[in-house]
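Annotated sample (chain length 193).
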Amino acid sequence: MLRRATCISLLWFAFAIYMSLSGCCGCKDNSHAIQYCVNVSSATLTPYDNSGTEPVPAGAQSIPGRALILELQLQHEDAVCFKSPPKSFFNAAYAFTCKQKTEGRLIDSVKFVSIVADIPYDDIHPAGVELNEYFKMPPVGDYNYIGEMADGAFRFYALQAPQQAQVVVYTARILFNSGKTIEVTTQPLSIVP
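Output written by the structure step:
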């Protein structure tokens, strides 16, 4: 009888060790990992007049060319594209003590952003030619950041005005690694040198 009780006690002890070890292993091998697929759903390009004490949305008034700010806003959509199931009942029972690992994967990673105007900007920049050298722009890697900042706003500060006062429509062309492109434009803006 004592031998049987000892065997049962040892079995329960082995079962308890197995349960705690399988739960810990579940934490370490990220068996509860969730992966989010992030797509760029839309974009907007908003002009600001930075000639005052703080930038204000551009209106009908003329904007000094070097006081122009173009703000590119990228909206993202997040969806769960992968969630690994628990490997065993014990992992599922132990999961409430595990820190859940989440990982984001940007499907639409930005490869390049260019700014163009619909009119000749100066002698060497006819209509439709890239004007990136005339704007202070963030590095491309900044567009692909996902985490706490789900919707990113990126500001392009004008460094050069057009040679003549004119009405300009600016376009931001966003090229993704997949080959997909998005173009967003401003309303017509009265820009003065």
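Annotation: The domain at 2-192 is CATH 2.60.40 (Immunoglobulin-like).
Annotation: The helical segments are 2-28, 89-94, 140-143.
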